[in-house]
Design goal:
The protein is built from 3 helices and no strands.
Length: 88
């Protein structure tokens, strides 16, 4: 419920900003470009956040060891069931 309220507030704020820009600041000939700029800006922001997330991605050596154990365990289980899981 909280996310819906946040989204609605954001939508109202963006709409108010949009109407204010259309009425006062932006000449009428450029108003059709504003949605394009907004979408491009949103895409750039999204790419930036993905890049920052990848740069700060934590390495977890303990989890890697546990994952390798789980993989070996699963391979052994599947071998007992008659499934060939070796890629060699």
């Amino acid at each position: 419920m909280k996310h819906i309220v946040k989204l609605l507030i954001l939508l109202v704020a963006v709409s108010a900003f949009w109407i204010a820009l259309l009425e006062t600041v932006v000449p009428r000939s450029y108003t059709w470009l504003l949605p394009v700029y907004f979408i491009v800006s949103l895409g750039c922001y999204g790419l930036l956040m993905v890049g920052v997330g990848l740069m700060h991605f934590p390495t977890c050596p303990q989890e890697a060891v546990l994952l390798q154990k789980d993989i070996a365990e699963a391979k052994e289980f599947l071998k007992q069931r008659g499934v060939d899981v070796d890629y060699d």
